[in-house]
Amino acid sequence: MQVTDSMRSTGSESWRSWAWRFHPNLLVPGRLHFPQLALRRRLGQLSCMSRPALKLRSWPLTVLYYLLPFGALRPLSRVGWRPVSRVALYKSVPTRLLSRAWGRLNQVELPHWLRRPVYSLYIWTFGVNMKEAAVEDLHHYRNLSEFFRRKLKPQARPVCGLHSVISPSDGKILNFGQVKNCEVEQVKGVTYSLESFLGPRISTEDLPFPPATPCGSFRNQLVTREGNELYHCVIYLAPGDYHCFHSPTDWTVSHRRHFPGSLMSVNPGMARWIKELFCHNERVVLTGDWKHGFFSLTAVGATNVGSIRIYFDRDLHTNSPRYSKGSYNDFSFVTHANKEGIPMRKGEHLGEFNLGSTIVLIFEAPKDFNFKLKAGQKIRFGEALGSL
Fold this sequence. Notes:
Blueprint: H1 5-10, H2 13-22, H3 36-47, H4 51-67, H5 86-91, H6 95-106, H7 112-126, H8 144-148, E1 165-166, E2 171-178, E3 183-187, E4 190-193, H9 194-198, H10 218-222, E5 228-236, E6 244-246, E7 251-259, H11 268-273, H12 277-280, E8 283-290, E9 293-300, E10 308-310, E11 329-332, E12 342-344, E13 349-353, E14 358-366, E15 370-371, E16 378-379, E17 384-387
Antiparallel strand pairs: 1-17, 2-5, 2-16, 3-4, 5-14, 6-13, 7-8, 7-11, 7-12, 8-9, 9-14, 10-13, 15-17
């Protein structure tokens, strides 16, 4: 708000007297002044409130603080008020509730006449290539969920047989390389804790073979063979990508750990903004072993991902209404009847998202393992990630 000379010239004398009574400094050109004494009293009342009530009262003002142009509410900082951070404000959004609602909406059967315009809008918005779909006829998909989980033609994604590890999904490479100092990069320069992401190491009794170093850092506990290194690769699935994911190599899945959590967006911009984003979000960690030692694949949930599905795990239920923060659920595929776990062949169907999300691979390999990638490149399921 600014009181200009033109406004003064057109205003009446009564307006001048009202403005002077309201606050004498209001008529100073180019400045918006707040009655500081009244604000200090109001802030004092807010400080006596409980934390939940204080947050409830502060958030509307915080939203205005970030939305209004030219720092209109910045004078409030002079009397001791501080806005809630953007990260805290975003974390307060009920993304799990919104995602469950989106999941319900995805299951609603669309009228036959409405399917083509709805799906065509989605295809145009996110650049979906329907020529690769096993069924190109849009009227075939009864609801959005079936459209998101559409299958591809067999020849659309040939599996590379020359390299030991392939991409488990379509997507964009956010980061890859060796795991150093028990920290993994979600995007360039933004890291998260390896132990926070995977959770505590499972009992050595459940392992196919014990770690090479029985004690030490969490990274050393995962490495099972002398001379090996730990590697990681992060693949972001956009909403327009193929939503199923496959086995990236020949390996055996022995354990599943499900972390209920938030469902914040995992797009690259958000990953740069929120530290340890992948550790906050709901995720399903599959661990086991391959010919070079430890191997894991983690499916990370995101906003509007109604569910994460693992085809061979019928006991897995994601995006539940209630959960305890920081909790996780373990399930072992190693039983008395099956002492090895679930064998997976390279390229075999493994699971699916109901919308775009992220896949994180963390695995052990010899020091001469080389990635065939560039950060930021687009990749498709079946293409090479790396080999010895």
